[in-house]
Write a structure and sequence with these properties.
254 residues, alpha/beta, nine-stranded mixed β-sheet, 9 strands, globular
Length: 254
């Protein structure tokens, strides 16, 4: 009863699936044994996205065995609080979920550090979390997907100028964190990330940015046509990351 009073969210429903849960992870939060929650809903429709179920706001028809409720998430964290030291919260776009704030609040009360994954397009929502010590993330990972003018290919209808402003505001807020507690990530999708795009993205990032590049996987894509797209070869990826290093020395192929 205490938790329901504290939430006071019209969307709150103990039996409503809010996302998926990895109970224990050694890779989702650098340096910590963590649980990882992936919340439903996203403002983008990245054609290469493989978390296809999470981009939908309407998940009532999904297999209940694959989804967890808010109460199930908190129950797991309570049971494993002596083993876990962190909680990674991702999506979809986690900042769109009405459950994000109560999940972070409950997890912090259990003594867990919070890592938040975001696409960087909601700087005010992130700032609202940051301003409150009870919800402030301890580590932020931001996806910088391509040059702002190409976000239209990701299903975003905003202008390139508006997108760049949002990304820049999020990046500015992230710079208040120690460099060990923030990172940026880019998937090397051939249609979206070319050398000129890397130049544009680099200009938005701080000089000491930890910038991680990942290979594109052409399977289980939101847009089936991307499953026919050939990923960059290992040599091509290394060439792009080497170029990124000339602009931001901490660029790395992960």
């Amino acid at each position: 009863m205490h938790r329901q009073k504290k939430l006071s969210l019209p969307e709150y429903n103990a039996h409503h699936p809010v996302g998926t849960l990895i109970k224990t992870s050694l890779v989702d939060f650098p340096g910590r044994v963590a649980a990882a929650v992936f919340l439903c809903g996203c403002n983008l429709r990245c054609p290469y996205c493989y978390n296809t179920e999470l981009v939908s706001q309407n998940n009532q028809d999904y297999n209940s065995d694959e989804w967890v409720t808010f109460d199930q998430i908190i129950s797991h964290l309570q049971k494993r609080k002596n083993v876990l030291s962190g909680l990674a919260v991702s999506g979809g776009e986690a900042l769109l979920s009405p459950y994000l704030t109560p999940i972070i609040t409950e997890a912090k009360q259990l003594g867990l550090k919070i890592k938040l994954d975001t696409n960087g397009l909601f700087p005010q929502k992130l700032k609202d979390l940051w301003l409150n010590p009870q919800t402030r993330p301890d580590y932020i990972a931001m996806d910088i997907k391509t040059a702002p003018e190409k976000y239209s290919l990701l299903g975003c209808s905003d202008s390139a100028e508006k997108i760049q402003t949002a990304l820049s505001q999020t990046i500015s807020l992230m710079q208040t964190y120690p460099k060990e507690e923030r990172e940026w990530r880019t998937v090397l999708v051939p249609s979206l990330v070319k050398q000129e795009d890397i130049s544009t993205m680099a200009s938005l990032l701080p000089p000491d940015a930890a910038w991680y590049f990942a290979p594109f996987r052409n399977d289980h894509c939101l847009d089936p046509s991307y499953e026919k797209m050939q990923p960059y070869t290992e040599t091509q990826m290394q060439q792009l990351v080497t170029f990124a290093k000339t602009l931001r020395p901490n660029a790395t192929l992960r």
